[in-house]
Amino acid sequence: MKLWQKNYKLNREFEKFTVGNDYLIDKNLIKYDVYGSTSHAMMLNKIGILSKQELKKLKTALKGILKLDQKNKFEIKQEDEDVHTAIENYLTKKLGNLGKKIHTARSRNDQVLVDLRLYSKAKLLEAQKLVLELASALANAAQKYKELPMPGYTHSRKAMPSSLGLYFGSFAESLVGDFEILDEAYELNDQSPLGSGAGYGLPLNVDRQLTADLLGFEKIQNNSLYVQNSRGKFESVAIFALGNVMADLARMSNDLILFSMEEFGFFALPDEFCTGSSIMPQKKNPDVFELIRAKAAKVDANLYFVKSVAFKMQSGYNRDLQLTKEALIESFEIAVSTLNMFRTIIEKIKVNKKKCIEACTKELFTAEHAYGLVKKGTSFRDAYKETAKNMKNLPKIDPVKNIKSKKHLGATGNLGLVKLNLAIKSANAEVDSEIKNFRSKL
Q1: What is the pLDDT of residue 5?
Q2: End-to-end Cα, the chain, rounded Å
Q3: pTM surpassing 0.85?
């Protein structure tokens, strides 16, 4: 039975079209729908809709669904349409008329919102943890190679002396920034929508605070219409946060592709990370990085898609929003899998110190010579012109000594890694606490 079933049958082709992939996508949401249903049943007991005995039976049956899901044995059929119907049908089959009571004071609209909020909370915490693990791996690499010079580039041309410590540290700090954006998305998402019905409140005096507390939400999302209008908005914020992470990983992937080319040779990718060519026996291809770039574009596309769907409708629920669910779940899957893989890459990538130093040719130090004249009293403009005239005759500079000599905050000789590691440690403690709290509630 469909939750909206009436005295007619839906055209089979129309049914396939309207259901789409929901019955497959919703496999990701089974346990969260069970958590929402359990909390809702406890609230129904409190307001007198369910007896203690009925609540006990429902909770036992819902735990049974969790056990089936853990074994990947809870089935959502196409004719169910979604996880909500599959669970109610299971309860009705198991408990008869009692199973039909679980939908009292609920709409599928606020059910899917609860599921997605709980799913997003779990996944945002997972992404935050992985971001910090990668940031830590990059900070370790920055420490390890802080005195190894390499060229810095602008316009894809050699520009000024840099270091591997500066390079790795830049991405570690950027990921800490990404963590903060993910944290903002988590805070926005941490609001209970349950009890909004179809967006216009309910004729029963439901206890929204109880269900919010039982599900571990920080607060209730107050206005019932805003609850429904926020679907798509909250998802787009989460995808935006994930997109920032993927943008950093895509840029670094591009660098690693370039700098591991034979013409540069700064890095070497372990064979286990490289695929081959079906026609050229010598090839070891950096396909993993190329796919990361493409997957970052896919997350961006998902953000555009969700915003395009959600922000072009009138107020209240519209079926268009069904399609935003897949974009959200796919974006989490992309980001989480990429973060897991990238940490391993950073920990195992090989650095060719000789190549990095050899690439620091003397034209990198022309600005150094100009500033040497500035220190003697010459204006920078005159020093610039004089240096430009005599570039062929400039003396050689030791690149290692040069990068170590730059001591202002954030320069190659003062990377601020202690401060960076403290920030990562503090953020990790925050996430660990939130993960513990989240798990204890569910």
Answers
A1: 59
A2: 29
A3: yes
